[in-house]
Amino acid sequence: MSDFAIRAENIGKRYRLGETVGNYSTFRESMAGWFRRSSKKDIEQASDDELWALRNLNFEVNQGDVLGIVGRNGAGKSTLLKVLSRVTEPTEGYAEIRGRVGSLLEVGTGFHPELTGRENIFLNGAILGMKRAEISAKFDEIVDFSEVEKFIDTPVKRYSSGMYLRLAFAVAAHLEPEILVVDEVLAVGDAEFQRKCIGKMSDVAQQGRTVLFVSHNMSAILRLTQETMVINKGRMVMRAPSAQAVDYYLSQGFSEEGSRCWDADEIPASAGPFKPIELRVVNAQGNEASTVRSVEPCSFEVEYEISEPITGLRVGLYLMSTRGEYIFTSFDTDEPEQYEAMTVRPAGRYVSRCNIPADMLNEGRYVIGVNASSFKIRRYFHDERALAFNVDAAGAPGTHWPEPRLGPVRPRLDWKIDMVEQK
Amino acid sequence: MSTMKDIQEAELPLTLLKPSKGLGSLQLRDLWQYRELIYFMTWRNLKVRYKQTLLGASWAVLRPFLTMVVFSIFFGDLAEVPSDGMPYPIFSFAALVPWGLFSDAVSVGGRSLVQNRHMITKIYFPRVILPLSSILAGLVDFLIAFVVLIGMMVFYKITPTANVWTLPLFLLLALVTATGVGLWLAALNVQYRDVAYITPFLTQFWLYVTPIAYPASMVPDKWQLIYSLNPMAGVVEGFRWALLGTEQGAPGPQLVVSSVVALVLLVTGYAYFRRMERSFADMV
Q1: Which chain B residue's Cα is nearest to A7?
Q2: A82 located within any domain
Q3: Please, what is the end-to-end C-alpha distance for chain A in angstroms?
Q4: In the list A118, A181, B25, B149, which could disulfide-bond A103, CB 3.0-4.6 Å?
Q5: Residues A36, A136 within the same domain
Q6: What are phi and psi of A270, to 5 degrees?
Q7: CA-based diameter of chain B, in Å?
Q8: Which of B30, B123, B191 to mutate to test the interface with A (most CBs of A within 10 A)?
Q9: Confidence of residue A251 (pLDDT cuts 50, 70, 90)
Q10: Chain B residues whose C-beta sits inside 8 Å of any chain A C-beta
């Protein structure tokens, strides 16, 4: 008996965009309230006739491996997980799965707001495929992990979102499947919760279970996985030890010099009235540049269109290292006066420009992410890795010593040297 | 916590994922594996059904009871519709109880997939559990209303006939019909949300072609066979015959036709459901 956990042969998944979807969109307009956004439909809408979300995927995962999966938005990562967890059928090819697949992408699936925490644990456990005896045996452990003992007999609709999430995660985490599939679960919840998730994941991995881990967080990928698969446009473009794969992933697709345009198929339909056009890095001379100097100011520009007025819109940037560590997050309406003046942003074409002062960034490569949202209302658009650029440190403080300086910032600080006593 | 050793020792089930062709299997093994989920979902539907309602489970009684009152006044007293020699109220109530089971099952079952779309798009389980468990939850409402029916029989001093043992068979016929129709509607609803608008109309229409407010004996003989194409006609007449002992004799060829139609509905409904199942997650 070979010891693979997953073996996929030529897996392909096609979404047809023919008649059915056409009708569907018509209904969608008349019964808008009935339909909630779904990433799947987003992809469908972007193209006219059909779309291969996955194509010719061949891979094997051995039992006990922890495999990372990285790729841009819409690359097919989530579709792959859906196929592997049997939510949707592949259109072609086949896959063999040895053991139970549990996924943390379904945290809280089937939770009913009217039912109590206790009732939901049993219900959710059953939905995840646990036997009743299994749930009873683990009940105390689950409650313990979720830290909601006091409210276990309260309907979950009275829970705070944090409690809800913890309880949901606790059930999923105690499923103990042979294969665990994790999709961006680290993107939700507070820092404490994320720490717990990562802890649980490494436990699972240490027990010799198989883990598939999808994330945009490169440092988490590097920390938790040995091997990583890079997916682009539904195809596997690389599978290698994680460090190598992450390097490759971060450097690919950044050939654009100093600017990044979004194609129609990269913009989800849920972006709605917000349409990103271009992100640019502009140097001190006012030109687009892929490399800027540390000692000169530069600016990041987001160009976008709004087709109808949006209330409370904020367009912002994340700056990260290529390892995925955040350096800062900033929004164009961070200043209260600016926010007041822009409460409702009328339809039109805009450029939000963020000026980066001189002497701020250290030499190295950086990644800019874009976010357009209305706080606590809706996230219109989000691209965590929109564009990468380089910073050249020539002339920066300390460059007369030819050594790399640690840390992402390289400020020109005011040093005074006082002699306190002369000998 | 089990360790790697346990995992290797245990026989790991092998799942093959591939595009399915044709009608697919009956999926009975899968259903058996997930039998506890059927139980839990039924239980959830029950628990949730009357949450935050003032009258709670009394609705299970009130709805058929009030309908019976209206029917008795307008059809029984005013229009003087014959009732096979029975007091009109119990004549109609004995029909409204199984009818309520059917119409609830059809409307709740038909909605079940769309209502639980968040489950369908995120996790695997045999999808048929959703309509099935909502239909099963309706059985409890049925039982409550049935107790009231027994109370009414006591009130009208009607003793059940010797044929009362056949009652579970008629109940089964009602369930088979409801499941067949429910599966059709649930699967159709995923693709065509029109179903949501058709269902109330369909159940209303079906109510009229079922002998609830009137006896099946009112239908001319030459139409009887066509009339029994409606399996609910067989169910309702059967309930009256087994419980109250109406003047009509035992249901004969009509019942055979009703049963065949019910089975056809169930088989085609399940086949259609299984065929569409593979794309539920992509369409719902």
Answers
A1: B16
A2: yes
A3: 80
A4: A181
A5: yes
A6: -70, -10
A7: 78
A8: B123
A9: low
A10: 1-4, 7-8, 12-20, 34, 36-37, 39-41, 43-44, 47-48, 51-52, 116, 118-125, 191-194, 278-279, 281-283
Same domain, A263 and A182: no
**In the prediction, which pLDDT does A25 show?**
41
Could you tell me if A96 lies within 8 Å of chain B, comparing CB atoms?
yes
- Per-residue confidence at A46, pLDDT binned at 50, 70, 90? very low
Kindly state the tokens that stand for B184.
């059709």
Asked if residue A165 belongs to a domain, the reply is yes
Write down which residue in A190, A225, A251 finishes a domain.
A251
Please report whether residue B128 resides in a domain: yes
A417 in a domain, yes or no? Answer: no
Query: Which one of A251, A276, A303 terminates a domain?
Result: A251
Tell me how long chain A is.
423
Supply the range of the domain harboring residue A275: 259-392
Q: How many domains does chain B have?
A: 1
| Domain count of the fold of chain A | 2
Shortest distance, CA B280 to any CA of chain A (angstroms): 8
Name the most confidently modeled range: A72-81, B17-26, B138-147: B138-147
Q: Give residue-wise pLDDT tens across range B118-150.
A: 888 888 889 999 999 999 999 999 999 999 999
Q: Given this model, what pLDDT does residue B22 score? A: 61
* Contact assignment for A100 to B37 by CB distance below 8 Å: no
CB A302 within 8 A of CB A364: no
Q: How far is A110 from chain B (nearest CA, A)?
A: 6
**CA of A177, closest CA in chain B: separation in Å?**
10
Residue B8 lies in a domain: no
What is the ipTM score, two decimals? 0.80
- Between CA A413 and CA B201 the distance in angstroms is 77
Rounded Cα distance, A199 and A203, in Å: 6
> Could you identify the residue written with the tokens 């009652």?
B167
Contacts of B18 in chain A (CB under 8 A): 89-90, 93-95
Angle of CA points A334, A339, A343, to nearest 5°: 145
User: Domain residues for B197?
Assistant: 55-283
Contact A87 B121 (CB under 8 A): yes
For residue A89, the chain B residues in CB contact (below 8 A) are 17-20, 278-279
The answer to whether A96 contacts B16, with C-beta atoms less than 8 Å apart, is yes
The end-to-end CA distance of chain B, in Å, is 37
In a domain, B184, yes or no: yes
Quick one: A88 and A155 in the same domain? yes
**A129 and B125: CB-CB below 8 Å?**
yes
The single residue listed with the structure tokens 């987001």 is: A302
Is the residue at A399 inside a domain? no
